[in-house]
Amino acid sequence: MSDTAFPRVDKRVLADDGDALHFCSTCAFSQACLSQGMDKSALMDLHVLVEHVGPLHAGDHVFREGDPFDAIAAVRAGTVKTYVIDADGHEHVLGFHLPGEVIGLNAIDEAHYPCNAVALDTVMLCRFSFPKISVLATRVPGLQQHLFRLLSRDIGNAALLAGDWSADQRMAAFLVGLSRRLAARGFSADRFQLTMARTDIANYLRLAPETVSRVLKRFQDDGLLKVDRRELELVRRDQLEALAAPILRH
Amino acid sequence: MSDTAFPRVDKRVLADDGDALHFCSTCAFSQACLSQGMDKSALMDLHVLVEHVGPLHAGDHVFREGDPFDAIAAVRAGTVKTYVIDADGHEHVLGFHLPGEVIGLNAIDEAHYPCNAVALDTVMLCRFSFPKISVLATRVPGLQQHLFRLLSRDIGNAALLAGDWSADQRMAAFLVGLSRRLAARGFSADRFQLTMARTDIANYLRLAPETVSRVLKRFQDDGLLKVDRRELELVRRDQLEALAAPILRH
DNA sequence: CGAACACTTGACAGCCCTCAACGTGAGTGG
DNA sequence: CCACTCACGTTGAGGGCTGTCAAGTGTTCG
Predict the structure, then answer these.
(1) pTM over 0.85
(2) A227 in contact with nucleic chain C (CB within 7 A)
(3) Does B34 share its domain with B139?
(4) A122, A142, A159: which is the final residue of a domain?
């Protein structure tokens, strides 16, 4: 049996935060609740539906490839890495998921998780039973629409790094993308911690770890950024944006 | 104004094929209708909803990047290529869409099509207004579930070619994938026509057109396949599958 | 028949991977 | 407090895959 947080029975449930109208302000569904006209009764239904899971610690798995799919989850705190191991034993990182982002959407089709998900630091999750949220979505059009949009967005995101970009472009796009997503959640856009190892970045960008090191060093030598271990400061955001522009497309 | 089939008013509507219970046997939604327990009344609703568009001819656009999104479409016949033009003017092919497959799903999030879609040969489409099919999906859980699965599947597909695979692996995965999809629609798995140019394949696999030529030639010299212009025969499917295995993953 | 286009073939170079060695910081036990 | 260990990260040298450039061939269409 996989030692994951989802299939296990003894998941830790925290029910102490938020009331019916203001719970999960950092949640991926809060915007849907507030803006798409979800009424008080629907909000209560979603509140009852959610299970708060965590804290998970670095190295803990949320789910593993092949686990039966029964729930999606919104990251509330920390970073989750999704990845697969290919036939040659090499790791491919599919994505890093920050607070407010949803994992598990790519499992709907096959009814099994097609990848692994692991916590990179201390992670808190909101778990949504997919059968239950689907039923709720039929009664709450705003929620259905939000799910459609989340799924649609992931299609675009998955295609972003598929191009044959240079190592510099990939690294710039990664850093700028990270910065934008952090900023959207209220974190600093110019100074932040890399929660993942160089090897993880390399496996995400499809580069060798050595190349990641070299590019970061060159970016620093060129004054584009300052990097100290996993501490990062974007100095010349404009130049990084310019490098990343063909990938991020806006 | 874009000269596309969707936004235009004068789309050709064909209502001559199929009755209420058997229409669109090649349609991407037929499985949903039949297997997910869609009742007769729901089927009628879907029948009323669909608009048959076409025939489009090679070079005709279904939609263009930036067009306002209002509908998804199932390919009924022919091949549709989706692509974007990057800041440097280079074309990136996002995918080739065969009969039974759905285009436009990646447009839901931004409410505008994020890419272009063009017919590679004579194409017939089933157009579904997205607002309307969404409403119908709230009444027909099987349809909602089918839409979720279609979206989820595209996330996985978009990630397939993202790895740093060799030219041989990419080409093998492309051919095997094409063969499987054609076979699933009742076409021959071992002999088929490439409906796209070498350049299109190259822009899809992120290779140079010259590399596509060279790999195809080498595959032919090694007895893996026979290729004559756009006519293709897979001779050693097992070896191609082996090459593609790490990418296709099953 | 000529032009445009798609495709093929060849020579060469560059980017990045591989392999190897070294440096560094955190945690551990003495 | 210090030596040790180990994972992580950096730096250097060399080579292979594939892109680029160029020229040539074949086909379609006006």
Answers:
(1) yes
(2) no
(3) yes
(4) A159
